[in-house]
Amino acid sequence: MLFYINASFSLHFLPERIPHPYPSSKIEESEHHRFKSHISNRKQFRMSAANPLKKLVKCVILDLDGTLLNTDGIVSDVLRVHLVKYGKKWDGREAKNIVGKTPFEAAAAVVEDYELPCTTSELISEITPMFSTQWCNIKPLAGANRLIKHLGSHGVPMALASNSPRDNIETKISFQNGWKESFSVIIGGDEVKSGKPSPEIFLEAAKRLNIEPSSCLVIEDSLPGVTAGKAAEMEVVAVPSLPKQSHLYTSADEVINSLLDLRPEKWGLPPFQDWIEGTLPLEPWFIGGPVIKGFGRGSKVLGIPTANLSTERYSTLLSEHPAGVYFGWAGLSARGVFKMVMSIGWNPFFNNTEKTIEPWLLHDFNEDFYGEELHIVVVGYIRPEANFPSLESLVTKIHEDRKIAEKALDLPLYSKYKNDPYLKSSL
Ligand code: ADP
Ligand code: RBF
Ligand code: MG
Question: Where is the Riboflavin kinase domain (predicted)?
Fold first, then answer.
């Protein structure tokens, strides 16, 4: 059943109400005034590099797979198992070709790329039962629950527009608490003539929301989705689900690394209020193992040693956490528990091919501790990974991260994890 927008929805963030009721800082408050004076000259406004405000919107249209749900992992798992039957090996390379496609287009791409001796329809009927057993295992992506709850609690209308068939969408979201009720409109790829990259699905969502397309913000992980959103003349935030792809998303109005980095106030929506002293509290997560050799450049090149952990046993955990700078507590066998700040990801400055975890323990040790058991609890997030114009600016930024982490870890909210038994279990 569809829920249509109730006219009494509290659209108190509408452009008519400028100055904006949700300034998140003094600077932004003045940005809103600037916006007001430039409202008739959007181009000029948007070319102002210092101005973080994009364009006011009234609602948010979300993609599902790869944007809110971590479906890519399930797709890879199913194809990995199934292709063995054809004597083929799924190597993940094709992931790029299927993200954002309709199921039929995605299956057709796999049949073609792997030269499978079956038709697209046959492949679909073979793998559909395999997917059905997996729906309940799909996890929300980082920040998805937070975003839905936030927009919902502020009365921001939300639509779900996915190339997946409507029935599949309903099944997938039925496993996620509170999601179905949060969307005023849900549209599947089978409810329009052509799926993304055609703008049709987004235009239909806007129509059903009763909001003009130019006041809609689309959040999308795939290129076809971004193309569709722009073709619908909507504002589009891209959250690429595959690494090292952001340079391809030139048509998006903004590219972010994960939903954790979305700043709703840039679009005239209520800002998140959960950031504390430059940090975002997370549901804590745990990882540990012996300290292994890394790239050998932490101390040498940066003067910042990072005690690398093997990611072998943690590929799932690692895929669940977006690249970025995090912090928490580190327990080191026979040495104690220390504050910790770390990067997860591909270190754009060095353009690594592997996603690594690099914890910097905020303590002076007189020696190396390779092979010792290190247990860490990650309690908060600071920022996305970034590239830097010079080594010096990277090092400066990492020292800023250290200061933020050091200070935040004294807050009761974070300091309580210092005594977590997991940290001491390695002692
Ligand atoms: P690698 O590339 O092998 O990780 P690094 O130059 O990053 O080399 O140095 C990391 C090593 O330095 C750690 O594995 C650990 O043995 C040691 N080390 C000394 N002090 C620290 C610290 N404060 N934080 C992390 N590692 C440290
Ligand atoms: N590398 C990057 O390329 N970009 C970053 O934004 C970045 N941030 C970091 C933040 C912290 C707190 C730490 C400890 C490291 C960070 N690095 C970053 C990783 C650095 O490149 C890495 O430690 C070296 O590559 C050593 O292997
Ligand atoms: Mg290291």
Answer: 280-410
